[in-house]
Write a structure and sequence with these properties.
Structural class: alpha+beta
Oligomer: single chain
Distance between the termini: 30 Å
Number of helices: 13
Helix content: 10-25%
Radius of gyration: 23 Å
Strand order of the largest sheet: 14-15-17-18-19-24-23-22-21
Number of strands: 32
Strand content: 25-35%
Shape: globular
Length: 664
């Protein structure tokens, strides 16, 4: 989930195009067209109002209250919300902000020690060997695993943190041009960047109210772009996964561009490979036997990163199958540092944003994932058998067997889940799918043939444990052309995105059927600034600070309230990215309130709560990366504010002073 808008401001065009290239050649009726039809019939019943109506009714509510009550309503974000914090104001500054009564703690930063023998961080003299033992760059997804294993301990656990990608112009001294820095690295710089990718597993503890890493934690681990990883499932061993270094097609070095992720009921972490296309290049991109397949995944002749100048496997001309070994979900056991990570091919190959789970009524486990690109799709994977809560080992390869589905959203509020199964419908050998492996390696093309609904960049797709509904963050789609717009589609160039709520059968009961092939859908909100951005739809009580732009990640607290992190608001709305909260039920449903705002140039990722709701962790990615920023001249030096240090992507913890649940 790199920078997500091309509206100007802080967002470098070269990087954003990796997600926004829009490689679906034949988008059908888009989600925007369906959204407008659904809103026209249902929005008023669900508490949503359009920009003009919302502004008018909010004004009426405040005007009819006493002066003291009106002031309180404005500060608290309107009547009906269960959230008790005093909403902060939108800003764009060098520092971040939280409500009164809360504090921000820096837990771990790029370059901090993860492994016992890690050297001290020296930004002037970085090496691949040092970085492989240190916390990586551009932290994204976070998951908290309590210690001891199987407990619900809230003050001691393992943080698993993705390191999505690198910004060499901010990492290394002397580099000023972003594109040249990425595409012309020295060999040591390229290897250091590879070591800065992947995941960190870090033991942390809260003592005297403060979170900190446990020095030399025995379960600490680094996974990088060079870590051996097993390939499993239907595509393992397929000829298109075989290379000169791995003629078996069953082991790959590393994982790339790990964005969001999820967990399993048996206590493993899932990490999602997203924009893997940017690491590969060569003339074969347009002339080789796989040119059409490359194009559908956005693989082009000129790689986004210049690693192929030094490492042959990133050259399409040397290893044309290497890209096929990326774009998967990777399962890692955080409690066993010796266990090999595994790429689970049954879950499909695309630009996975995340992979979150819900247990269906029959015990099968369902994993939801979005393909983060314009006009691409929402997926779910249903395991073939139920999970075993009494035998962790029995679930070891549960993700190798099951059915992958892609979503079709219908105009009347129904939705269908279409199976991506070789031999069914158009997924035949005549169409190039000789086996299930072919379907999975070319998941996007298979979904195209099934006529799934093209979406406006589906990112996090998260089940809410409290109500059984599933929420999809649709970040934006600025390339929807005016000629695609008609009276049913008011949001051409959708810069701000929206949130969809999917409703499986049984939602709201203790027997939710997440494995069902049919369901319903609603609109939760349509983002943008009310009264300014056409089509914005919010709860009528949303304050002047509560609107948001570019929803990206989300999480739920134990009360089922949604917490939405944004990516792209500086470019679309000239406010910093932040974390917003809202009820999902009751009178405050959809009444978003601003809780945290990041420093300038940064994106907010990975919201994650401890089991007691007393801490929310956030990953603050690429701080200081505004236009023209570089190692020596960043727009902020957050979090250290030390002239000798560059800005450092970091994991922070937000807690209430004196204790208590976040948001209450």
């Amino acid at each position: 989930m790199t920078h997500s808008t091309d509206q100007g401001g802080a967002m470098p065009r070269e990087r954003l195009e990796l997600e926004d290239i829009g490689s679906n050649p034949t988008p059908r009726e888009t989600i925007g067209e369906l959204v407008e039809r659904r809103l026209s019939r249902r929005a008023a019943l669900r508490g949503l109002l359009g920009a003009g109506a919302a502004a008018g009714l909010s004004g009426q509510l405040l005007a009819s209250a006493s002066p003291a009550a009106a002031q309180g309503m404005a500060a608290q974000g309107g009547a009906g919300s269960s959230l008790g914090f005093r909403e902060i104001a939108h800003q764009m500054t060098e520092r971040d902000a939280v409500p009164e009564g809360y504090e921000i703690q820096t837990v771990i930063r790029w370059g901090d020690a993860v492994l016992p023998d890690a050297p001290a961080f020296d930004p002037q003299h970085q090496t691949a060997a040092a970085q492989a033992m240190q916390f990586g760059y551009n932290n994204d997804f976070i998951e908290f695993f309590p210690l001891p294993q199987g407990s619900r301990t809230a003050d001691h656990g393992l943080l698993t943190v993705n390191h999505e990608y690198t910004d060499p112009h901010l990492m290394f001294p002397g580099l000023t041009d972003e594109e040249l820095a990425r595409q012309n690295p020295t060999r040591e710089q390229a290897l250091t960047e590879m070591a800065a990718h992947g995941m960190s597993v870090v033991e942390i503890r809260r003592e005297n109210g403060r979170w900190a890493p446990v020095a030399a934690g025995r379960l600490n681990r680094r996974i990088t772009a060079g870590t051996p990883i097993r390939i499993s499932g239907p595509a393992a061993g397929h000829p298109r996964l075989q290379t000169s270094a791995d003629p078996t097609g069953r082991q790959v070095l590393g994982m790339l561009n790990n964005c969001a992720g999820g967990s399993t009921p048996w206590g493993t972490v899932l990490t999602a490979e997203e924009n893997f296309n940017q690491y590969f290049g060569g003339a074969t991109a347009t002339t080789g036997a796989q040119a059409a397949a490359y194009k559908r995944y956005g693989i082009v002749e000129k790689a986004g990163y210049g690693w192929n100048r030094h490492v042959a496997r990133f050259s399409l001309d040397a290893e044309p199958n290497e890209p096929n070994r990326f774009g998967w979900i990777v399962e890692i056991d955080p409690y066993d540092p010796q266990a090999a990570p595994v790429k689970r091919t049954a879950l499909g190959r695309f630009k996975h944003e995340g992979c979150t789970h819900a247990v269906s009524a029959d015990g099968r486990v369902v994993f939801y994932s979005g393909d983060d690109e314009r006009f691409d799709y929402v997926y779910k994977f249903v395991t073939a058998r139920a999970w075993n809560p009494d035998d962790r080992a029995a679930n070891r390869d549960l993700l190798d067997e099951g059915t992958l589905y892609v979503a079709r959203f219908l105009e009347d509020g129904r939705m269908e889940w279409l199976p991506l199964v070789q031999g069914q419908g158009p997924l035949t050998e005549a169409n190039g799918f000789a086996s299930q492996a072919d379907v999975l390696i070319e998941t996007r093309r298979a979904a195209d043939l099934l006529k799934a609904t093209p979406m406006d960049r589906p990112e996090d797709v998260q089940p809410n444990p409290a109500n059984g509904r599933v929420y999809a963050m649709l970040t934006n789609n600025t390339r929807r052309k005016p000629e695609q717009v008609d009276k049913a589609n008011p949001r051409a160039a959708n810069a701000h995105g929206h949130v969809i709520e999917m409703i499986p059968p049984g939602a709201g009961t203790d027997k939710v059927d997440h494995a069902a092939t049919e369901g319903r859908w609603e609109i939760f909100l349509v983002a943008g600034r009310p009264g300014v951005d056409a089509g914005a739809q919010y709860h009528q009580g949303t304050s002047a600070e509560g609107w948001l732009s570019c929803p990206d990640n989300c999480a739920f607290d134990s009360k089922g309230r949604i917490w939405i992190a944004t990516d792209g608001a500086p470019g679309t709305s000239k406010v910093a990215d932040g974390l917003y909260a809202a009820d999902t039920e009751g009178p405050g449903r959809g009444l978003t309130r601003l809780f945290y705002q990041a420093p300038t140039g940064a994106e907010v990722c990975g919201p994650c709560f401890t089991p007691d709701d007393q801490t929310v962790f956030l990953a603050i990615q690429h701080p200081g990366d505004d236009k023209g920023s570089n190692f020596g001249n960043p727009s902020t030096r957050w979090p250290d504010f030390d002239a000798a240090l560059p800005p450092r992507p970091s994991v922070i913890a937000i807690v209430r002073r004196g204790g208590g649940a976040i948001g209450s």
